[in-house]
Amino acid sequence: MVSGSNGMRPDSSVIMVSGVRGEGMRHFSIFMRMASYESARLSMLISGMALPRAGHRKEASRLNAFTTMAKSFTINASKLRQGKPVFHLIRSALILIFACSALPCAAQDSGYPVRFYPDVFTPEGRMTLTPGFSPDGRTIYYAQTECVPIWECPQRLMRSTFDGTSWTTPEPVSSTQGGRVDYPSVTPDGRYLLFSWQMPREDLTGFDVDGNFDLWRLDLEIPGAEPEPMIGPDLARLRAGAVRTLRFVNNETAPNLTEEGDLYFWSERLDAIGERDVFVARSDGAGGFQAPEPLPAPINSPSSDEGAWVSADGRTMLINYADRGGCGGSDLFMSRRREDGTWSDPENLGCDINSPDEEYAGVITPDGAQIVFISNRPDGVLDRPTFQMWATAMPESD
How would you list the strands of the sheet with 192-197, edge to edge? Predict the structure, then answer.
């Protein structure tokens, strides 16, 4: 959280518009001072790791509202030039404020989500999916589709870094181009980038494989390194034969490695608990993995349980469910690992964070301050609902 002044006078950006005089000009100037000041404070807030922390949600709502008002004045300044009364502008701004209290265009007091740096991560006509952060929080990896529907499109792995002010223009991770990439994450030591990749493997040459997502890793410390498949007993099942085109069977995705060396991912396997399940491949103590096992209830069920992300310390899980009650569509839930190694009943993050639309692929930023996730809720900007990155302050613990 940034505090203090940015060196600007609160009234340094007052806009004087011809055609307004006397008392009307005075009220307009006061209003614009407030908008200018609050917009500057918003700019400071969204530097660093960007979004309001839990203790500053109320301020975030004010800042977003004043930013919206400033835009309203800019758009409608011509009315003043035409000699129309100032109350038209104030009325327009107030309408926008109340609209923002109902639409996802402002961070609400309860922690309502906002778009995650939309000026950077909203490529025209494309979706931004499944984010993952480096341990220091200064690099983000995510998947980006090139068209709709996504299963007919290239899905590229993108990277952006924080330069101290904002995120840089995203660039593709060149060594992962070709095939479709999803669910990137970085190991706790920062060395490896893990991801799910639908890429033909040399060791599977000769097999009639269809669209097989496997778990891969890329060494970030070796320049020019090429991705390599993650190896372990029963870690990668073959999507061939009778299951070659059956649903999502034998695809593995969303790898997350903990500091203990345990690998979490989710898959659809016919001999598991439900349709889709969260698995853990425990560390073998020598840098490898034991055979993966599906997590028992309450994480997995006879239904579809997917989208899991596990924190580096292995104690917090975000997961999305569509059939355990909530706000509509797929919702984000949180579970904590107890001292005995079992997981608590996943709790819905609530309808201030979830929406009637779809939410999934949630991750907690390394500083523990925010949840960044994917949703296709309307944002009032894009012409149609599109899966994009959103963020909200981390809910306060009870």
Answer: 181-186, 192-197, 214-219, 228-229
